[in-house]
Structures are given as C-alpha cells and as structure tokens.
Write a structure and sequence with these properties.
- The structure holds two protein chains of two kinds.
- Chain A is built from 14 helices and two strands, in the order ααββαααααααααααα.
- In chain A, helix 3 packs across helix 11 and helix 4 runs antiparallel to helix 5.
- The longest helix of chain A is centred in the last third of the chain and has 27 residues.
- By secondary structure, chain A is mostly helical.
- By secondary structure, chain B is α/β, with parallel strands linked by helices.
- Chain B is built from twelve helices and twelve strands.
- In chain B, strand 1, helix 3 and strand 2 form a beta-alpha-beta unit.
- Chain B has a six-stranded parallel beta sheet with strand order 2-1-3-4-5-11, with helices on both faces. In chain B, strands 7-6-8-9-10-12 form a six-stranded mixed beta sheet, with helices on both faces.
- Classes of the chains: A mainly alpha, B alpha/beta.
- Chains A and B meet through helix 3, helix 6, helix 10 and helix 12 of A and strand 7, helix 8 and helix 9 of B.
Chain lengths: 366, 348
C-alpha cells in the first residue's frame, strides 16, 4: 500500500517536475498539434510502405515527411542554440550560408562543366570542402561578433545580404545539376532502407553534440559566457574564443544542412534555397524554451522544437493553408512563446498555480 | 532636344567613318572626302547645341536591370544584353543591378547625370517612376522599358518590350485542353503572389477551372521555390488525393514537384500517369522534356536585346515607333515534338 503511494508520489513529482522542465514547452506544443491532427483527421498518422521510382522501399506519410524535412532544421537548431547561448544573439545568415556551402558542393562535384555525366570529385571531398568553407564564413561572423563586439544580428546581416550573390559567383551564375544517383541518397533514401536519410544524418549530428556536451566543457563554458561574460573571464575562461567557436560550430551545421538540401534536388537555386530558414531555426531555439538573450540552454528541447515547427508546417500544408500565410502562423507561435516567457506572465502563472494548489489543499482538509 | 540627339548621332557617324577609313587602307581620296562631310556635320553639331557630347562616338545606354542572380531567366537576359550592347555594335553600355525600386531609381538618376542617350529599364516595381522619367525626358534621354511595365504615362517612354504572361498561360492551358484527358485533377503551383508572371499564368488556369471543369486539387504558392513545391506536392501525395496534372508556374517548382513524385513512385511524363508542365524553358527543363519526363514547357522569352537594338536603330534613323508595346514571340514546347535544335536555341 505504502509502496504504491510512494510510486504515486514519485509520479506526481515527476509530472510537476516535467512542468517545470524546459523541454515541457516543445513537448506540450507537440502534443497539442498531435491531438489537433488526431481529431481533425486521424489519417495524418498513417504510414505506408511503398516503393519509389528507383524501386527501393520507402515509408511514406505525413509523419515521415516531418522526420524528413525537419532534419535540416534540427541540425541548424543545434548550432543556433550554441550561438544563442554564448552570444545572446542569433545568426540570421544561415540561409545564405547554406546557399554558399551548397554552391561549393556543386562546384566541386561538377567542376567547370555545369552538367557533367560523371562526378568530378568524390562526394566526401566536396562535402569536406564545403565544411571548411562554411566554417570559414562562420568564423567570419564569429570574428565580427566576438572580437569586434558587433551585435550578432547586425554582424550576420552582412552575410545575409551578400551570401546569395557569393553563392552565385562561386558557380559563375550557372546552376549545375548533379546526375549521379548516389548523390541523391543524402536527401532521399539509401536503397533498401525505407527511412529518409536526412533523419539519420540529423540523428548522427544529435548524437555527436550530446557526446560533446557530455564529455567536454563546451556546454558549461557557453552557458557561463552567456550568463555573465565578465565573471566567466574572471574565472579563467576566454569568452571571445568561446563565442567565436560557437559560430564555427554553426558553420559546420550549415554545411551538413546544405548537403541535404542540395541532394534533395541535385541542384539548387541560389536566390531561394533555404529561404527564411534562419527564422525557423531561431524559432526552434525559442520553442525549446531557451532564452533568446543567452545563458542557459537545453539542446534536446531545441532539437525537438525544430521537429515541432516542421510538424506545424506540414499540418498547415495538409489543411491547404495558403503557403504564403505560413509565416503569419509561425509569427503567432513566436508571439505566444515570447509573451509566455516574460517575467510578468510567469509570475502571474505561478500565482495562479499556487492558488489552485491552495484550494486543493483546502478541499482535502475540508 | 531632337536636334541635339541628331547632332550627336551625326557626330557619331562621322567618327565611325573616320575610324573605318583609318583602319582599312582605302583610297586616301575617299578618306578625305568623308572627313570633309564629317567636319561639316560636326560644325552643325557644335552650332546646334551648347553641350555637345564629347564622347559622341558611341551610343551611350544606361541599363537598369534586376539582379542577374535572381533566376535563370534574369541571367540569360543579362547575358543577352551584355552581348548585344557592346562597343563592337556601337554602344557604350553601363549597367546597374538591383532588386529594389529605390536603388534602381537612384541608378537612373545617376545615368541621367552621366548624360546617357538611352535608358533601358526593367523596373523592380511598377510604381514610383514618374518623376525620374520626366527628368530623363527633360534631359533628352529616351527610355525603353523591357521585361517589366510600369505605372507611368505612355509619353514618358518610347517603347516597352514585354512578355504577355496571360498569353503564355493561355497557350499552356490550351495545350492542356488539347490533351483530352478524361478528367483534370490539377496541382497548381504558383509563383510569388502578385508578380506579373504569376497573375498571367494563374489567370488562364483559373478561367479554365471555372469554365471547363478543371479541378484544382490544390492551388498554392511555392514562391518560385523548388523545395516548397516539393513539400506541397508531398502533402497532396500524403493525403492520398488523386491528381494527374502538375501545373507549375516555373521550371524550378516543376522540378521540386517531380522530386516528390519520384519519391512516391508516381510515374510522370509522356504517356504516364501525371502530366508535368513548367515555364521559362531552362535548358535542363527542355532536356527533361526531350527525355519524356515532362510534358510541356512554356517559354518566357528573355532575349529582348535584339528588339531593343532594332528600336534604337529606328529611332536613330529618325523613324517613329508605331506600337509602344512590343510583345515578344513566345512558344510552348510539347515533349512529343521538341527537337534538340529547340533545346539549343531556346534553352536559357
């Protein structure tokens, strides 16, 4: 009897603990969306096994679409969370940086010929070069923010405006198309595996970042720099370098996302590829309950936030919402989140919570 | 004003004839002869105007265009302009690029100050051009619009060379009707809402939906973006709604749609389950057409330079332009009839 009670108590503690946990916000959003879809049309959750035109088995359905398209966002959210935590600002140039990294991948794969029959270089080489380039551009942002102390949004505005032109310049304004089928695996399916590859790539990235956060001091250092730069300096950290490092890591995330994006269509359009993805990435961080002004962060919540955003997007597409109205819906989510996270509303909410508890205990006593 | 231009042109012809004679070892008599007439013209030129252009040897054109990175169309358009308005063809061209109207207007003011002879303009936005074009008119600069029209009085420009987007849409819809499908369930992928291309290409299909019983399974803007198109089509496939036509308002979106079809193993192209239609005639798109993976591609002609060149030549010869609005010839290609020649000639 008493044992059961303690279990119950633990459960209760666990639940109330969950409420207080940061990850509660994206989970709640996910549940709301899922319930909404369940009521509106349960077929949303149907997953079917079919075959794509190459004859390989693929799973399809809305949930798979979410896993597929949410992956780039999840990868970007990793980098964006670190940048946000350390610098207290956001990088708005990730879309343009994806265009640059994608352009580099195409340039290396296609050489000067915009429509080669065979790849001019192994894919891994192209990817590694793209990583280096994207990290260099990340480093550029990082230098501006960390060493010159420019506001992150202002500093990254430079690349935001210039990036797509740079991307076009890399390929002489041509739009190369990769014809090699193996290249499409990264944004599609590996033959024989019915789950979209981007999900695996995202999973690997998530695994790596969790190992890094667990076994290195990166997480601790970024948070302390974000919370109080001066005191972390007094404690022997180098805030400048840590801020710089987060931007370089974001650059790496950008390169991975670019590989997926380019692979999806075997080509890109510089002016529209990954358009406005920076807003989604920032939204993922916000939806994860992380403070946009830096400091503590929860990586898992951000990553979950990214998939929640894709869930929202896919839901809106499903209900035939005009796609140019999508940003408006996302804006509503942002407003709700920002308002909910203000101290005033939090105080009010906790006051309401206390009142409820009190009335409950009163009832129990009575 | 006309006198001034005439003078400049005459001076230009004079210098040309001098140059021509200098380079070729023609008879010295002929050379002096033309030089004489030339100097006579030059006299009238200096008499006729107080500020005769010193560099009157070439026709100075200021070209204001949208950013060539905007699209394959714009890249081809810019390349065409650069190839036509060369010194070898008798032009001294300066270029200014922007996707923003105010920056374009600033560029136009600069060109007016530089004293160009012609202002060629592809406006980012239709509004706000009246005063600057009036300035150009006062300075004796002739304005020719290409690709985009503007909301300004017709007297402010000499000619406007445009594509008729509504006609492009109509051609495509007529082609679709001629396929005599038993039913038409169409996924309609629109461009950026409000753009001329979107309005024209959507208009024809909307009419057909209203009058011919075309069923629009979904009508969404993918904003010229392949990824967005892919997601929209993916969503329709996930919902299990049947469809047999994809009407994408540009090639990129058609490509995105096809990527989604491939993933779901839905066959597309000539004689297959789904008809794929695109616009703009990118070279790679025409190749898809030739391979039978797509069915139709409508042209949006980016090669306005030859039309402009012709008009400038006419104006220089003192002729008047009878028709202010010049609509370019535009084709629609059918996958069953397209040839390699078409791909090479019309691919951009």
């Amino acid at each position: 009897m008493s044992k059961e009670k303690t279990v119950e108590k633990q459960n209760k503690n666990f639940l109330s603990g969950l409420f207080r946990q940061q990850i509660f916000i994206p989970i709640a959003a996910l549940i709301i969306l899922a319930v909404f879809n369940l009521i509106a049309d349960p077929s949303f959750f149907k997953i079917t096994l079919g075959y794509n035109s190459a004859g390989d088995p693929v799973l399809s359905g809305y949930l798979m679409t979410i896993l597929d398209y949410g992956s780039e966002l999840a990868i970007l959210a990793i980098g964006m969370t670190l940048v946000t935590a350390a610098s207290g600002g956001q990088d708005i140039s990730v879309g343009a940086a994806i265009a640059i990294a994608g352009s580099v991948i195409l340039r290396v794969l296609c050489g000067t010929n915009s429509r080669p029959d065979t790849l001019q270089a192994p894919i891994i080489v192209a990817f590694l070069i793209a990583c280096v380039v994207a990290m260099l551009f990340g480093a550029f942002n990082g230098v501006l923010v960390a060493y010159f102390k420019i506001q992150p949004m202002v500093a990254t505005l430079i690349l935001y405006t210039a990036g797509r032109s740079i991307a076009a310049w890399i390929n002489n304004n041509e739009l190369p198309i990769v014809s090699d089928p193996t290249f499409s695996y990264f944004g599609g399916f590996i033959p024989g595996i019915p789950i979209p590859t981007p999900f695996f790539i995202a999973a690997v990235c998530v695994l790596v970042i969790f190992l890094v956060l667990k076994f290195t001091t990166l997480g601790l250092y970024t948070q302390s720099v974000g919370i109080n730069e001066n005191s972390s300096k007094l404690n022997g950290l180098n805030p400048t370098f840590i801020k710089f490092l987060t931007f370089v890591i974001l650059g790496l995330c950008v390169a991975v996302a670019a590989l997926i994006k380019v692979s999806r269509l075997s080509s890109i359009n510089y002016s529209v590829i990954a358009k406005d993805i920076e807003m989604d990435a920032i939204l993922a961080v916000a939806l994860g309950g992380n403070s946009l002004s830096g400091g503590k962060f929860n990586m898992a919540a951000s990553i979950l936030g990214a998939y929640v955003i894709q869930f929202l997007t896919t839901t809106l597409y499903k209900f035939d919402v005009q796609s140019d109205a999508l940003p408006a819906y996302k804006a509503v989510v942002v407003i709700l989140l920002v308002v909910l996270s203000t101290p005033k509303v939090r105080e009010w909410l906790s006051a309401v919570g206390k009142k409820l508890k009190q009335s409950k205990t009163v009832k129990e006593v009575g | 004003m006309k006198k001034k231009i005439l003078a400049a042109v005459m001076a230009a012809t004079m210098v040309f004839s001098l140059v021509a004679c200098g380079s070729s070892d023609a008879g010295s008599n002929a050379a002096t002869g033309s030089a004489d007439t030339g100097s006579a013209v030059a006299d009238t030129a200096s008499a006729g105007t107080t500020s005769a252009d010193a560099s009157g040897d070439l026709i100075k054109v200021g070209i204001i265009n949208n950013d060539p990175n905007e699209s394959g169309y714009r890249t081809a358009n810019d390349k065409d302009m650069k190839e036509t308005f060369t010194e070898a063809n008798g032009y001294e061209a300066s270029f200014a690029y922007s996707l923003k109207n105010d920056e374009q207007i600033t560029a136009a003011q600069k060109f007016i100050q530089d004293g160009v002879d012609y202002l060629l303009l592809s406006a980012a936005d239709t509004a706000g051009w009246d005063s600057v074009l009036k300035d150009a008119q006062d300075a004796g600069i002739r304005v020719i619009l290409f690709d985009r029209t503007i909301d300004a009085d017709e007297s402010l420009y000499e000619a406007s060379i445009v594509s008729d987007m509504a006609k492009e849409g109509q051609t495509a819809v007529d082609w679709l009707k001629s396929q005599n499908l038993s039913e038409y369930n169409i996924i309609h992928l629109q461009g950026v809402m409000g753009s001329a291309a979107q309005q024209g290409r959507t208009g024809a299909l909307d009419d057909a939906a209203a009058n011919d019983g075309f069923n629009l399974v979904t009508q969404q803007t993918a904003e010229w973006n392949a990824e967005k198109a892919q997601q929209i089509v993916q969503s329709v496939i996930d919902a299990g709604t049947p469809f047999n036509v994809i009407y994408a308002e540009n090639d990129d979106m058609a490509k995105g749609a096809v990527a989604a079809l491939d993933k779901a193993n839905i066959s597309h192209g000539v004689g297959k389950d789904v008809i794929v239609m695109g616009f703009d005639c990118n070279k790679w798109a025409l190749e898809e057409l030739k391979a039978g993976n797509w069915n139709y591609d409508g042209q949006c002609n980016p090669f306005q330079a030859s039309y402009i060149d012709e008009i400038i030549k006419k104006l220089e010869n003192g002729e008047t332009i009878s028709e202010k609005t010049v609509i370019m010839d535009e084709k629609g290609f059918d996958a069953t009839t397209i040839t390699q020649e078409d791909v090479d000639n019309y691919g951009i």
